[in-house]
Amino acid sequence: MPRDYKKEYAEYHSKPAQKKNRALRNNARRAAVRKHGKAKLKGKDVDHIVPLSKGGTNAPSNRRIISASKNRARK
């Protein structure tokens, strides 16, 4: 039986907590683009040192720019 990706996406991503976290991540990315420019962020992610899911904040002191592969391999 094939997976219903559309249903899975709607169930997870439409939760209020997920919408809030997505908005915080988007704001962090926009702030980094304003500060450093798009060119410096190419191939990089804005990483929250203490993840939002673990109670971290979106304050500039809790963010850093690291490569996308390093950020996504981090646990």
Q: Can you walk through the features of this model?
A:
By secondary structure, this protein is of the alpha+beta class. It has four helices and two strands; from the N terminus they run αααββα. Strands 1-2 form a two-stranded antiparallel ribbon. The protein is globular.
SSE inventory with pairings:
Elements: H1 5-13, H2 16-36, H3 38-41, E1 44-48, E2 63-67, H4 68-73
Antiparallel strand pairs: 1-2
The rough form would be described as: globular
Spatial order of strands in the largest sheet: 1-2
Q: What is the CA-atom radius of gyration, in angstroms?
A: 14 Å
What's the order of the H and E elements? Answer: HHHEEH
Strand content: 5-15%
Individual helix count: 4
Question: What's the short version?
Answer:
The protein has 75 residues and is an alpha+beta fold.
Please supply descriptive tags for the structure shown above.
alpha+beta, 75 residues, two-stranded antiparallel ribbon, 4 helices, single chain, 13% strand
